[in-house]
Automatic annotation (TrEMBL):
Domain called THUMP: residue spans: 55-166
GO molecular function: RNA binding; rRNA (guanine-N2-)-methyltransferase activity; rRNA (guanine-N7-)-methyltransferase activity
Pfam families: THUMP, UPF0020
Composition bias type Polar residues, residue spans: 237-253
Chain residue ranges for the region called Disordered: 232-262
PANTHER family given in the database record: RIBOSOMAL RNA LARGE SUBUNIT METHYLTRANSFERASE K/L, RIBOSOMAL RNA LARGE SUBUNIT METHYLTRANSFERASE K_L
Native species: Polynucleobacter cosmopolitanus
Cited Gene3D superfamilies: 3.30.2130.30, Vaccinia Virus protein VP39
Keywords noted in UniProt: Methyltransferase, RNA-binding, Transferase
Name the UniProt record assigns to this protein: RNA methyltransferase
Amino acid sequence: MKFFIVCPRGLEIPLAEELKEISERSEVKALGAWVIDPPPLNNTGGLGVAGPMSVALAINLHSRIASRCLLQMTHVAYRKEDDIYKAARSLSWEDWITPDQTMRVDLTAHRSPLTSLNFVTLRIKDAVCDRLREVKGARPNIDTELPDVRVQAHLTATHATVYLDTSGQSLFKRGWRDDKGAAPLKENLAAGILALTGWKPEQPLFDPMCGSGTFLIEAAYRGLGIPSGSIRAGLMNPQQDASQSAQDHNQAVKSVDKSEPSKFTRYRPTRVDLVGADQGFGFQRLKPFNTPDLKKQWDGLCIVAKKNIEQGLANANKLKMAACDINENMIAIVKNNWKRAGLPAQSGVLSNVRQIDALVAKSPFAEPGVMLFNPPYGERLEIKGGRDGSERVKGRGARDALPKNNNSPEFMEFLNQFGKHLKDNFQGWQVDVLTADMGLPGQVRMKESKRTPLFNGPLECRLFRFDMKKPDASLGNS
């Protein structure tokens, strides 16, 4: 079988390295060999893998960087829409899905000569439905919100590829996200950036502008060896304070009663499942997964993962991690997200999550480590004041968009001050900054040692690395 593993553009190399690590896990290796394509030279947003169906099981459970795991159904040359329809209709969809399931079709294209991609999408949908009506006497209904089955297609200038999505909802939806706080970046992008920094679990990690805590939680999962799909696989029970749980539950029931389209309309909940968790993974709704062999393989992977989770949580006190944010509301969200992620509140990490202005934050550990952050930009950040910690930055909780730059005198002064603060207080640290502002090195008045192009959705960004010089020991002895 052939798969295409989707990832944020710019993370193809760390994805390839991660897939190699997953394929070499003993419990995965026992299920069959993988052939992983080399990372592409350009940012294509993914790479190919060949192997057994267990590839999909392992990637959905373990990959921190992947967005989706797509199973290739066909790859054909085309000239017009009807060529794609015929190719899709010839596939044995009855071996994969049933007429009583719901489905949706999504299409992407690069340099396709066809004038209406919406029409192509409809033709692929018709092909699947016509095939099932012919073979089974009935066709599936369309559900664009939470379908049982997702069909993906991609067009180039000459070829069409049709896939079945084995992931369901995108894999960045881990199942712990508190929706009331806007996410500055997706979890799999954060995980890929962590891989690019080279951070090791035994090293200190510090985020001085932590927002909702995405870097912190992804680092904890990685450091403790917890699979990224643990909550969606049902291996961990996310925690949540009782008042918020009741509030969400009441809202869910209201949505069902009013028959409004929402993530809860498919059933009347007796408890609130988190985003992504109520749908598990896409492969669990494909017919081959109902075979004893694949279920046994999945159970085997989950048994090993459960043991690793238990061992990891037992070592949570060994994590050297800290974070701060100037907005006290974001600190509350970080701590709630940490608990929802199933991480122990008594680990000691949460005591290192504090409301502090980044301009006055000091090194939280005796030894240097990795500082990683995603600064807010534009009108979503109002800078007021200096470095004494009494002033506040407003709007820190709404970092869902990053304008390309901000040339206001106040913000330029903030960056200038922060660069000086890093030089004075974080000597020996490796500082990694994700930003859409290409001029940031000049604004903090430091020369980057490395810059990596990345994409936060459609927004082009850079991951800048700054190596803060250690103090010269000889000067202290003179």
